[in-house]
Amino acid sequence: MLINAQRPEELRVAIIDGNTLEGYKVDVAESGVTRGNIYRGTIANIQPSLNAAFIDYGAERHGFLAIQDVVPDAYYRQPKGGHPRIEDVLEKNKPIVVQVVKDAVSSKGAALTTSLSVAGRYLVLTPFDNTRGVSRKVEDEDVRRKLKAIANAFELPEGCGVIVRTNALEQTKATLAKDLSALLRLWKRVQTAAVQGKGNRLLYTDQDLILQALRDNLDNSVEEVLVDDDEAFEKAKAYMQAFMPRAKTSLIRYSDRLPLFARYGIEAQIDRVHDRQVELPSGGHIVIDPTEALTAVDVNSGRSTRAATQEETAVHTNLEAAAEVARQLRLRDLGGLVVVDFIDMRASKNQRRVEKAVKDAMKIDKARSSIGRISPNGLLEINRQRIQQALQLRTHRPCPTCNGLGRLPSQEMVSLSLIRRIEAQAASGAIQGVRIRLHPELADAMQNHYRKELAALEEEFDLQIEIIAAAGLHRPEEQVEWVRRERPIPPPKKPKQAPVTFRPSDLALPEEEEDEEPEAAEAVPGEPRERRSGRGRERKGRRGQGQGAKPAQPQDRRGGGRSGRAPRDEAAPVPREEAVAPREDGEELPPLHEESGGTPEETAESRRRKRRRGGRKRKKGGAANGSAEPNESAAPLDDAFDGDAGEDHEPVEAGPAEADGGASPVRRGRRRRRRRSSGGGKGGSEAASPGEGGGGSED
């Protein structure tokens, strides 16, 4: 055991085994460690919803006292039921004696109890609990029974109890009785101080690190105790003479000029205690991340490749990590829930080996712990007693630059956030300027990369934006000063664009596009686009042939006429609107309008109607002719069409003439497709017989 007490602001105690650091304790001035201290405090507040009270005992934050930690001797009123409420037994602003069982962590106050205990070298006195027991660290049943018999033989005041510690295993009854007498005298002094005076007061402290280290760690396994300070040496000497007169442990005053810890080469190991990553002998490493809720430990194989298979590598690395995790928990004083993520192992026997290795490594720990089983995800939970604050909390403070987060916001994020805030304030019209003080790094980045955005805000809202580089500010700090206007001005309004409106004329197609629309646009609905374009090319080819030698024209099966193209004037279709329909009294109705009359728009509309209605007229004539045979092939429908390539045609519903022919619209559509396919297969035209032709209208 090495005790370094040369610096008054820091006292360090290290326990080494060979060259390996096995235990480390440090007492830093104003570290805030209060666990084990007994205070006289005041009940500051009672919270029935929590069934707890908050105690002011002189610390920065009030301590937390739950109802289960209030012993009957501390009641101000006797409860009526078996399960008392905190408001029924305590009174606000009344004094109370409490002991700190868990130091304050982060924003949480210390945990307090009224079940006081005073620890000695071999025994622990419990003034308000008459239980006589043995430390749970003693596992041998025979030894437990022997120590329990010794505890039962002690003469104690009424209501007091005693717990036999692990250090009492090889001690005599006289030594244990001497330790008990010292504890009883100490408790009487605490009782006397509790009733004297008023206000908050420290009644008992257990924070003399030298005596605490000797009491908790000095046993027969320690061969030497080296102390480098005279005052600390005298304390250790007095303690060993009082409690360990026959111990074989030697006490040595270290006086060499080389520092004690450097003499044994443990300074480097102490520095690594604060590292996030700890290396393993085989090349792997563990990563330790303390959080508010738990401590996470991740095991990585790293460069560990000594084993032959992946499973062997995982087992070997996990076994090394098991011992190192237990050692790091002791050195860092990590308590609470610890979750270790081991490397996945397939064999259950290997998982049991790792679990046993963790339990064996935790046996030498002074803090109580419970260890679970490795889950299917490779996680092992360890619950370790939180004896005192973690070493990092006592020796380190949060980073003022990142506030302990370990991350800083980027320059872009800070700049854009400030620009958005300036824009939001300027849009209200209440400010005429802003002065921003930033860390020099952020100020330079904002002025260099966002100069245009700042100039645009100044011009739009008539602002004056000033960015100042302040060397005295940390990076996350900023100082923003808004310059208000005497009279707020309304913010500038952006002109609204007129909504887009549509007129009926915008939805109609121009007249030129309707006249020049290709016949493919008015093709039969449902017909593939490729067939319509091919049919158009066939019509163009046939028109070219008609200009030279006129080929033989096939017979139209529907009307008996020729399928060749006649001049437009010879067989112009009569529009249905101009047809003279006979009335029942024999008189004829006059035509609806004359083609030559009317406005140009009416004339163009008339021509379009002629094109559409002419096709329907010809279809009616073909359907009314009874000589058509559906099973015989005929020329394509396009060959029976009279007109140029730009004429429109579309199918119409069957009229009276088509109904007489006995063909439904669906069957007529099928015939057209058969005639098109047969006409295309024979070159697009068939020679007509001399006797065929004549009568019907030409298609």
Describe the model.
The chain is built from 19 helices and 24 strands. Helix content is 32%, strand content 18%. The longest helix has 25 residues, at 600-624. The chain is α+β, with helices and mostly antiparallel strands. Residues 512-533, 535-597, 622-662 and 680-699 have low confidence and may be disordered.
Q: Give the DSSP E fraction (strand runs of 2 or more residues).
A: 15-25%
Low-confidence stretches: 512-533, 535-597, 622-662, 680-699
- Counting DSSP E segments of at least 2 residues, the number of strands comes to 24
Helix content: 25-40%
Major beta-sheet overview? 6 strands, antiparallel
In whole angstroms, the N-to-C terminal distance is 120 Å
Envelope shape: elongated
Decide which structural class fits the backbone.
alpha+beta
Global Rg: 52 Å
List the domain count as a whole number: 5
Rounded mean pLDDT score? 77
Number of helices, where a helix is a run of at least 4 consecutive DSSP H or I residues: 19
SSE layout:
Blueprint: E1 2-4, E2 10-17, E3 20-28, E4 38-47, E5 52-56, E6 63-66, H1 86-89, E7 95-102, E8 111-113, E9 118-119, E10 123-126, E11 132-134, H2 141-152, E12 161-164, H3 173-194, E13 201-204, H4 209-217, E14 224-227, H5 230-243, E15 250-253, H6 260-263, H7 267-272, E16 277-279, E17 285-290, E18 295-300, H8 310-332, E19 336-341, H9 348-362, E20 369-371, E21 379-384, H10 391-395, H11 411-427, E22 431-438, H12 440-449, H13 451-461, E23 465-469, E24 479-484, H14 504-507, H15 511-515, H16 529-546, H17 600-624, H18 656-661, H19 665-681
Parallel strand pairs: 1-14, 11-12, 14-15, 18-19, 22-23
Antiparallel strand pairs: 1-2, 2-3, 4-5, 4-7, 4-13, 5-6, 7-8, 9-10, 10-12, 16-17, 17-18, 19-21, 20-21, 22-24
Helix pairs in contact: 8-9, 11-12, 11-13
